[in-house]
């Protein structure tokens, strides 16, 4: 307990899936404030109320991660409310047909939307978080990438490209801001059951194929990923930056 004592965190896409698990875990581990940042207003408000009811400290803030002005507002309001900013988790993302299209089937509009949501958002949030983290004496920025930011597959052109982009963005920012004690790392989930993957995993044969590719005999759950995010957010990882934390049941070790 209290691995995040005194720390204030923003978690994008925080209302459901891996983001929700991360927000709940951060609150249980003593975070001084957890900002649930999402476009899912009802889910986000309900989660904040549930965390507060359980003894944690959380607030919901609406955030479209593709809009720079909204990032400026959320970071400003976070610091006004809690006095500082120590952790940002770039978890918001999208998959679906636009993200999964093969190269010949992808459109410029679809490509750009996926890149904006999955990659440009991390740039915008990091850009505006850095000055506040510098004031706080340092911080931790965590980009939720994917195993498909490391390896390819039969589909997923824009998804792979966007997840690969934030993998190298994290390394670059890690080098640039190490002197400010701002750590930047990426997390690479494998096949995980979340609201975003529910439709895909319900298709005939998809779950079975993904299980066959995963040496540990189950798919992931959001808490599997959240525990890794907690480690990178905590002072236990004070000498970890520019790293890739793969949490995939052994899939890419094959």
Q: What report would you give on this structure?
A:
The chain has 254 residues and is an alpha/beta fold. It has one domain: Rossmann fold. Helix content is 46%, strand content 15%. It is built from 9 helices and 7 strands, in the order E-H-E-H-E-H-E-H-H-E-H-E-H-H-H-E. Strands 3-2-1-4-5-6-7 form a 7-stranded parallel sheet, with helices on both faces. Helix 5 (108-135) packs parallel to helix 6. The protein is globular, with a radius of gyration of 17 Å.
The fourth-level CATH homologous superfamily is: NAD(P)-binding Rossmann-like Domain
Could you give the count of β-strands?
7
Top CATH class: Alpha Beta
Mean model confidence by pLDDT:
95
| Spatial arrangement of strands, main beta sheet | 3-2-1-4-5-6-7
Largest sheet: 7 strands, parallel
> Uncertain spans, ≥5 residues at pLDDT below 50?
none
The CA-CA distance between the termini, in Å, is 35 Å
Helix content: 40-55%
Number of contiguous helices: 9
Radius of gyration: 17 Å
Oligomer: single chain
% residues in beta strands: 5-15%
CATH topology: Rossmann fold
Structural class: alpha/beta
- What letter string, H or E per element, gives the SSE order? EHEHEHEHHEHEHHHE
Number of domains: 1
Shape: globular
What is the level-2 CATH architecture name?
Answer: 3-Layer(aba) Sandwich
């Amino acid at each position: 307990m209290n691995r995040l004592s005194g720390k204030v965190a923003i978690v994008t896409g925080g209302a459901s899936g891996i983001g929700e698990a991360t927000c709940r875990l951060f609150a249980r581990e003593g975070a001084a404030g957890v900002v649930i940042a999402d476009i899912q207003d009802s889910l986000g408000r309900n989660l904040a109320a549930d965390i507060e009811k359980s003894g944690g400290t959380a607030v919901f803030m609406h955030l479209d991660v593709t809009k720079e002005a909204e990032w400026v507002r959320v970071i400003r309001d976070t610091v006004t409310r809690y006095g500082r900013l120590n952790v940002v988790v770039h978890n918001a993302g999208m998959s679906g047909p636009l993200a999964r299209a093969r190269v010949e089937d992808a459109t410029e509009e679809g490509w750009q939307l996926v890149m904006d949501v999955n990659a440009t958002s991390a740039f915008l949030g990091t850009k505006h978080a850095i000055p506040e983290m510098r004031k706080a004496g340092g911080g931790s920025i965590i980009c939720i990438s994917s195993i498909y930011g490391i390896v390819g597959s039969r589909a997923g052109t824009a998804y792979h490209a966007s997840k690969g982009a934030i993998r190298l963005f994290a390394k670059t920012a890690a080098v640039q801001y190490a002197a400010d004690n701002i750590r930047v790392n990426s997390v690479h989930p494998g096949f995980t059951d979340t609201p975003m993957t529910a439709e895909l995993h319900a298709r005939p044969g998809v779950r079975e194929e993904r299980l066959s590719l995963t040496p540990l005999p189950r798919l992931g759950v959001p808490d599997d990923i959240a525990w890794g995010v907690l480690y990178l957010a905590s002072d236990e990882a004070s000498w970890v930056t520019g790293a890739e934390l793969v949490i995939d049941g052994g899939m890419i070790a094959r």
